Amino acid sequence: MFNGLHAAIEGTRAALASIRAHAMRSALTTLGIVIGVAAVITVVAIMEGLSSGIDSQLDDLGSDMVTLRAITSQEQEMLGFSNKLSYEDFLVLKAKVKDVEDMSASMQAFSFGSTVSYGRQTVQTQVIGTDSGYQKVIKVYPQQGRFIRSTDDDRRRRVVFIGESTRKKLKLPENPIGEFISLSGEWFRIIGVAEERGSLFGFDQDNYIIAPFSTMASLAGSRVTENIDIMFRPAAGANLDSIQAQIRQILRKRHHLSGDDKDDFEFITAKKTKESFAAITNWVTLVAGGVVGISLLVGGIGVMNIMLVSVTERTREIGINKALGATPNFIMLQFLVEALVLSLFGGIIGLLLGWGLAAFLSMLVPSMPAALVPGWAIALSFGFTTAIGVIFGLMPAVKAANLNPIDALRYE
């Protein structure tokens, strides 16, 4: 045990001395490992940060919210068909579906946004037509004023509830309640300003205008009201599968779908969104893994090369050690430890470089969540670098251990 510990200490000392003596050569040797580890740490840190940010956003929105949306297959699109959910579908579901706490319908009043003006200020913003239930389903609350009410919808009042970014871009007063803005040439009175939600992936979540559904329908026409999204929240203790089965049965009957026809709508949940993003994350990590594999292979070859050079340079030293009683195992362990030190040195530099690069990119891109390096990524990186040191350091170590002491002492 003492000999093994002594060999490890001597190997570490020799490796550090070799790195100091040949700093440039050591840096170039470990470059492949540095690049590989830095690449995987950067990608993983950014993706973990994004994943954490999305989870937080979905938690704020509510994990129990379900969105019902029309879907059109590629075959139908090629034939010129487009499946839609109508406002009548929403009214039927709202009347017949049980165990639903809140249900709301929303439409994008203008496909590419709309021009909104206040004084000399003009901006493009998202315009949503919806009802009073939207507030509870989406959990959007006013920091000033109020949200739209059922009476606003019944009487087609020209009132709007705006996001904080829209207020700032239009340079409205701090308290804009009662002010009038022009929406596509029509005047609307502001009744409320929403609490800020911030940005996600550079998308401003506070740049929008919400108006009563009936008001937007009268301005945009039936082509818009025939393509809506339906959002709902199950009642406490209700079974979501049972609710979805009710909705599926009602809509299939209304849309005249036979038993073999696929649904022309889909349910989007927070869980499904998380799974979709997790699939993307896994693919990105897999691609990064391929890059890392190539880089680490190159780095491993570099480590093996430098260790073979080290064996050649220290041939006489090996002969002297063997003449003084050093065993082949002692010599092999010494060179294995030296290869490990080189590999771990590259791994540590790569880890720090990747972490720093991920943090820099997070600060560089507006509203991107902070980079997060999980413990498993650090452990995996060091595991890879350790394996590289052992695998590619084994051949030089065996060569050193098998040197004939007499030939080694005669080597010039």
TrEMBL record:
Q: Which UniProt keywords apply?
A: Cell membrane, Membrane, Transmembrane, Transmembrane helix
Domain MacB-like periplasmic core stretches: 26-250
Q: Where are the transmembrane segments?
A: 27-47, 283-309, 330-355, 375-395
Task: Tell me which residues make up the ABC3 transporter permease C-terminal domain.
Answer: 291-405
Q: How does it sit in the membrane?
A: Multi-pass membrane protein
Under the heading InterPro entries, the entry gives: ABC3_permease_C, MacB_PCD, Macrolide_Exporter_MacB
What family is this? Belongs to the ABC-4 integral membrane protein family.
Q: Which PANTHER family match?
A: ABC TRANSPORTER PERMEASE YTRF, MEMBRANE COMPONENT OF TRANSPORTER-RELATED
- Protein's recorded name: ABC transporter permease
